[in-house]
Amino acid sequence: MKVLGIETSCDECAAAVVDGGIILSNVVATQIPWHAPWQGVVPEIASRKHTEWIYDVVNEALKKAGITPAEVEGAAATAQPGLLGSLLVGLNFAKAFAWARNIPFIAVDHLLAHLYASRLKYPLTDRVTDKATDKAPTDETSCSCDKNMAAEYPFLGLLVSGGHSVICRAGNFDDVSVLGTTIDDAVGEAFDKVAKFYGFGYPGGAAIEKLAREGDSEAFTFPLPKLYKLDKQGNDHRYDVSYSGLKTAVVNQLEQFRAKPRGETETADIAASFQKTAVEILLRPLLRAAEDTGLNTIVAGGGVAANSYLRARLAEHRELRVLFPPPELCGDNGAMVAGIGEQYLLRGDRSPLNAAASARVKVFKKRYP
Ligand code: KG4
Ligand code: ZN
Questions:
Q1: What global pTM score does this model have?
Q2: What residues line ligand 1, using a CB cutoff of 6 Å?
């Protein structure tokens, strides 16, 4: 089923076409240069740019997929969570598209879509060249089945982005229960804030990862949170994470540097030491969850899942099968929305054309007993 997916929850204006789980096109227009002067996403700018760009982005996605609007069989869009003004642009565009073409519409959850990303495949011609035969792909071999292949449900999900850090159990593409989450900042947010304080660049995640390659991750010791005991309300934080302590410690280090000028090595050392601790904070509850639940397949998603240090650290755990989407499907994109949208639509699910957008996390809320 050819599904158009639209994603405008934050600063990427994205649209894609997916058919049978295969990505026919995936267009992402990034707003990074517009937000970079503020070192963070400015909601007003984001929604205005989405409004200006969405028509062209969707058109390009259809063109790249080699189809006309009349060939689209379903429309999907992110409805939550995210910046409300931004969400409304993509959501309403998808609704209008579905109404005009008289095709089904489905509103999807951004985090469920991130978790779905690793199941998507590319047409063989895009990613793999069959040098041996040099033949056009046949139907049976028309997709690049990633060496990882799609994970069987249930598995453990690790969702790590600018707004979220979630460890969950996924029983199906739309059935998740949250085991742990952040009690303060998200991991991507910590990367962004540290980069902002130190002037490492924007967005912070990729900038820190690059700098860290030159640094010594043992040069500085930053604290790890101790959350696993019950708090005063009796909440169990066994699988939760916290980043505010790490962020404060790294920023305090900057105060010491102000007293004496820092050299280039120290800067890279800070990045490497921060990255190591940030990843360590995720790994501890994740490995604990794997052990407690007996689930040894982990599926990652979200912008921070592109981080090669995180990937390498998880790969050390031979007892686990860890699946990461390719880097371009880790950050926000329309393919993940079209992909999960197709699953809902094939099942017969539909959203009404008055479906609302919501800034708030709904599906991935941790419920304490
Ligand atoms: O999923 P995403 O594109 O948007 C949200 O849903 O939030 O994630 C963006 C986040 C940002 O905080 C960015 O700094 C972080 O992902 N990020 C990374 C890397 N690439 C993006 N963090 C660490 N390492 C990276 N390579
Ligand atoms: Zn995202």
A1: 0.91
A2: 10, 161-163, 188, 191-192, 203-206, 209, 302-304, 306-307, 331-332
